[in-house]
Design brief:
single chain; 336 residues; alpha+beta; 2 domains; four-stranded antiparallel sheet
Length: 336
């Protein structure tokens, strides 16, 4: 998730195991430890544009890396805090702050190497958006209250409420998946793979993507709290198949390897952008849940197989797009 939420989770985790006189110090240590795992965003290369997305949420987010990650944070902070805190306590707060960084990211749809190096799979539970203001506010209020009142009770209550919110996200996911499977059956399709994920900053509007006969079908599903679920039919796009679409590309070429890396990052939800045949896109993400217009993709040049693909962002923050999204989120289309 975003850095603020990661830091707040780390702070409340550290605060939950403090003595009264340590609450504020633990909050700062936990906050720093909570965002430390995202230092992997600094892994970049001018010569290899895909290196960043390949290693973001990688080994630093693994459960097996937690003890070492916490130790590194503690060692960095020790010169500044050695007169105020024993190293064992410092390490405890750093460990608590760091330990759920990868787990929290795994609850999103982006994908996290949570079990590396045992498994290279990108785990994405699709329970919560990468940005969710309700979840963030729960942690913020708990952390601030615990900081001001010097009490671990507020932090523990905040963590319980945050866990309850994630449980609610799981229930909403089940509702959205049920609607998606019903829709697929009504169309007479048989999904070879199905992905249902929350849209940005909410647990009401969901994006459904499924594969049938070589095409990805995209729909929006609204599962309101006090209304029946509603489907907004969306677009479809042909699935990218390397052996068919770029059959002359040498399998050992740099470009072929980059496409394989991007496909792994995209969980196989890869397609050629219809308007740009030289662009491969991640179908999982779009500015609107009913379209295949991408948030990101890679530009490829089959005529230069030994050149790296270029990673590109295609975010659309126009007022028209925001208005369409809000109409879907608020269910205004249901009334038209």
């Amino acid at each position: 998730m975003d850095l603020l939420t990661q830091g707040l989770l780390g702070a409340t985790m550290a605060q939950s195991k403090t003595h009264r006189n340590e609450t504020r110090l633990a909050a700062g240590i936990g906050f720093i430890a909570g965002i430390a795992a995202d230092a992997d965003i600094l892994i970049q290369s001018e010569n290899d544009p895909l290196l960043n997305i390949e290693f973001h949420r990688h080994f630093t987010h693994s459960l097996l890396f937690v003890p070492l990650g916490a130790l590194l944070v503690a060692l960095v902070l020790w010169p500044f805090l050695r007169k105020r805190l024993a190293f064992a306590r410092l390490y405890l707060f750093a460990f608590l702050g760091y330990c759920l960084s990868g787990v929290l990211d795994a609850f999103t749809s982006y994908g996290t190497h949570l079990l590396w190096p045992i498994s290279d799979a990108r785990i994405a539970l699709n329970i919560i958006s990468v940005l969710d203001p309700v979840f963030t506010m729960i942690l913020l209020i708990a952390a601030v209250f615990a900081f001001k009142k010097h009490t671990y009770t507020a932090a523990r209550i905040g963590l319980l409420l945050a866990a309850a919110y994630l449980s609610f996200g799981w229930l909403q996911l089940q509702r959205a998946e049920t609607v998606a499977r019903t829709l697929i059956a009504e169309r007479g399709h048989q999904a070879e793979q199905l992905l249902v994920k929350p849209t940005l900053a909410n647990l009401v509007l969901w994006r459904s993507i499924y594969e049938f006969e070589g095409r990805f079908h995209v729909d929006a599903i609204r599962v309101g709290l006090f209304s029946d679920p509603h489907v907004y039919p969306g677009e479809s796009v042909e699935k990218f198949v390397l052996e068919r679409d770029l059959k002359r590309l040498p399998a050992s070429s740099v470009l072929a390897q980059d496409i394989a890396r991007f496909s792994h990052f995209s969980a196989g939800f890869l397609a050629i952008r219809p308007q740009q045949p030289d662009v491969l896109v991640d179908v999982r993400y779009s500015n609107l849940p009913t379209t295949t217009t991408p948030l990101w993709g890679i530009e490829i040049n089959p005529e230069q197989p030994d050149q790296h693909a270029k990673y590109k962002l295609y975010r659309d923050s126009s007022s028209a797009t925001r208005e369409k999204f809000l109409k879907l989120l608020l269910g205004e289309h249901m009334l038209e």
